[in-house]
TrEMBL record:
Residues 35-102 form the Reverse transcriptase/retrotransposon-derived protein RNase H-like domain. This is Reverse transcriptase/retrotransposon-derived protein RNase H-like domain-containing protein. Keywords: Multifunctional enzyme. The lineage of its organism: Eukaryota, Metazoa, Ecdysozoa, Arthropoda, Hexapoda. The keyword tRNA-binding does not apply. It comes from the Eukaryota. GO terms for molecular function: catalytic activity. GO terms for biological process: DNA biosynthetic process.
Protein backbone atom coordinates (compact mmCIF):
# COMPACT_ATOMS: atom_id res chain seq x y z
CA UNK A 1 0.00 0.00 0.00
CA UNK A 2 1.01 3.61 -0.39
CA UNK A 3 1.26 4.18 3.35
CA UNK A 4 3.20 0.92 3.74
CA UNK A 5 5.83 2.22 1.34
CA UNK A 6 5.89 5.56 3.13
CA UNK A 7 6.37 3.87 6.50
CA UNK A 8 9.07 1.53 5.18
CA UNK A 9 11.17 4.41 3.86
CA UNK A 10 10.27 6.92 6.57
CA UNK A 11 13.93 7.35 7.49
CA UNK A 12 14.63 8.67 3.99
CA UNK A 13 11.76 11.18 3.98
CA UNK A 14 11.99 14.44 5.92
CA UNK A 15 9.16 15.14 8.39
CA UNK A 16 7.20 12.15 7.13
CA UNK A 17 5.29 11.52 10.36
CA UNK A 18 4.08 15.10 10.52
CA UNK A 19 3.13 15.18 6.84
CA UNK A 20 1.34 11.80 6.98
CA UNK A 21 -0.73 12.57 10.09
CA UNK A 22 -3.98 13.41 8.23
CA UNK A 23 -3.74 10.13 6.29
CA UNK A 24 -2.89 8.09 9.38
CA UNK A 25 -5.85 9.64 11.21
CA UNK A 26 -8.13 8.47 8.39
CA UNK A 27 -6.83 4.90 8.75
CA UNK A 28 -7.77 4.57 12.42
CA UNK A 29 -10.53 2.05 13.05
CA UNK A 30 -12.78 4.45 14.96
CA UNK A 31 -12.09 7.45 12.71
CA UNK A 32 -15.03 9.63 11.74
CA UNK A 33 -12.83 11.80 9.53
CA UNK A 34 -13.41 12.06 5.80
CA UNK A 35 -11.05 12.82 2.95
CA UNK A 36 -10.54 16.58 2.97
CA UNK A 37 -8.04 19.16 1.79
CA UNK A 38 -5.62 18.25 4.59
CA UNK A 39 -5.63 14.59 3.52
CA UNK A 40 -5.30 15.52 -0.16
CA UNK A 41 -2.40 17.87 0.56
CA UNK A 42 -0.67 15.21 2.67
CA UNK A 43 -1.08 12.60 -0.07
CA UNK A 44 0.24 14.97 -2.75
CA UNK A 45 3.20 15.98 -0.57
CA UNK A 46 4.14 12.38 0.26
CA UNK A 47 3.80 11.35 -3.38
CA UNK A 48 6.14 14.16 -4.36
CA UNK A 49 8.65 13.13 -1.67
CA UNK A 50 8.93 9.53 -2.85
CA UNK A 51 9.19 10.39 -6.54
CA UNK A 52 11.52 13.38 -6.50
CA UNK A 53 15.28 12.90 -6.66
CA UNK A 54 17.43 12.32 -4.69
CA UNK A 55 15.06 9.95 -2.85
CA UNK A 56 14.93 7.45 -5.71
CA UNK A 57 18.45 6.33 -6.54
CA UNK A 58 19.88 5.42 -9.92
CA UNK A 59 20.66 1.69 -10.11
CA UNK A 60 24.31 0.68 -10.06
CA UNK A 61 24.46 -2.59 -11.99
CA UNK A 62 27.83 -3.46 -10.45
CA UNK A 63 26.19 -3.78 -7.00
CA UNK A 64 23.65 -6.23 -5.56
CA UNK A 65 19.97 -5.33 -5.49
CA UNK A 66 17.47 -6.04 -2.72
CA UNK A 67 13.77 -6.64 -3.28
CA UNK A 68 11.27 -6.12 -0.47
CA UNK A 69 7.76 -7.48 -0.91
CA UNK A 70 4.50 -7.26 0.96
CA UNK A 71 1.12 -8.79 0.34
CA UNK A 72 -2.34 -9.01 1.78
CA UNK A 73 -5.76 -10.21 0.66
CA UNK A 74 -6.25 -6.86 -1.07
CA UNK A 75 -2.97 -6.17 -2.85
CA UNK A 76 0.75 -6.73 -3.35
CA UNK A 77 3.70 -4.35 -3.40
CA UNK A 78 7.43 -4.42 -3.95
CA UNK A 79 10.39 -2.12 -3.52
CA UNK A 80 13.64 -2.47 -5.45
CA UNK A 81 16.52 -1.03 -3.41
CA UNK A 82 20.28 -0.95 -3.35
CA UNK A 83 22.99 -0.11 -0.81
CA UNK A 84 24.94 3.05 -1.61
CA UNK A 85 27.66 4.82 0.39
CA UNK A 86 25.07 6.68 2.46
CA UNK A 87 22.79 3.70 3.08
CA UNK A 88 19.93 1.75 1.55
CA UNK A 89 18.22 3.69 -1.27
CA UNK A 90 14.97 2.86 -3.07
CA UNK A 91 15.23 2.54 -6.84
CA UNK A 92 11.65 1.62 -7.78
CA UNK A 93 8.25 0.94 -6.24
CA UNK A 94 5.55 -1.38 -7.56
CA UNK A 95 2.11 -2.27 -6.26
CA UNK A 96 -1.27 -3.41 -7.44
CA UNK A 97 -4.67 -4.36 -6.16
CA UNK A 98 -5.54 -8.06 -6.34
CA UNK A 99 -8.56 -9.29 -8.24
CA UNK A 100 -11.27 -11.35 -6.55
CA UNK A 101 -9.95 -14.61 -8.02
CA UNK A 102 -6.39 -13.93 -6.88
Amino acid sequence: SFMGSINFFAKFLPNVNIIAKPLNDLRKKDSTMKWDTNAENAWQHLRMLITTPPVLATPDFTKRFQVFTDGSKKGVSAILAQHHQDGLKPIAFASRKLTRSE
